[in-house]
Amino acid sequence: MPDDPCKLLKGAAKKYCEQGGSHPGDRDFAPGGGGLTKGASDHVKDLATYLIGKIVGLVAPKDSWAPKTADNWVYAQFLWLGQHLAIAIMLCVVVVCALTAWQGAPRLRQLGASTGWTLAAVAGMAAVPGVVTLLSEAVSAAVTAMFDSNGGTLFQVIQADLDHGSDSGNPLALMIITAALVVLLAFATLVFMARSLGILVFVCMAPLVLASLARGGDTSAVKAWAMRLLGLMFAPFALILISPFVDFAKGSLVMDAGLLVVADALILRMIFHGVPYVGPVIAGAARSFVESYTTHPLARAVVRAGSPDFYQQESIRTPRTVDTPGRAVHQDRGVLLAAYGIRQQQRPGRLTVKSAIDRVQQDAPRTQALMAARQKARAAAKKASPRPATSAAQTASRPARPAQSPGPGASTPPTP
After folding, report:
1. Predicted model pTM
2. pLDDT tens across 113-122, in order?
3. 105-148 vs 171-210: helix crossing angle, rounded to 10
């Protein structure tokens, strides 16, 4: 027999063995005792703490995927392209101003503006990675302080409720808070992927966008780029809407889980509005995934609040419309006659037979899909609101129609 019979055991079983509990009726197996029940509760609390740490790290990552310095290999390729593009634009402006130097002061002002904005654009290209890195670190620190800094923040309240909450010993409450944290972790992963890739793309686009300043200082493209980049970086601050309600949920794990459900909806809405170009598509895909795997009304309501219904508008590419030779000659003849003071009647135009057939064939798939959708909607509407049947009592209560008297030319059948 070994000197220590418990040394080969691990975890809660070793603790139980060291406590000397060897009878089935020992108090350590009771719900109110320590032993295995307390060990399982500790494991759930450790899991919750681990999930909270991962969620904070995904929503407010300390490091981003974007280049931190201008000498990064990926950013250096775009920097080279942007600098050469800006210089090429400035040289074109110089050539145009030299060819039209007879215009005087306006061309000199354009030349000075192009030179100054080119220098500013080249300097800004090299400074973008550093500025974005500083902003990203500041946002991460602010979001971490907002959720996990002191006893009044959401995740600190959850960790305190796991130990001292009114339902901290209730297994059902522990299961609910753990499930809510797992769901929030999934949405936080989605946010991390969308934000990190978006920031990387917009930072790499910076030299190409800033090169547009070289033509003369048109900042419309730079403003649009900056607004989308800042929207991506500051998107996690949408979760600040939860902070005023943390004190109301303090002391109950179930109430904490309710706040986490609200956070899920806010994260989806943050993706919907904060991620440029593909945000509604990503949020809609997440909503469709949840709705396809669950029929619970609360889960469906949460994803619908985070990703509302929307219509998408696409840009169509249609062949250009040109005039037939006869119509072109007719229009130019009208211009010539108008010069002589003769007004020609304008004739409306229409597509030729071949062009109309081509358009119908090109739009045929879309037309068929729309017709099928309309027929399906009409059938569903008819099933949802059936026509009320007329009862026999209503039919009997209706007054009988008076018999119509035959006309003067009508023949009356003989009476038997």
Report:
1. 0.74
2. 888 999 999 9
3. 170
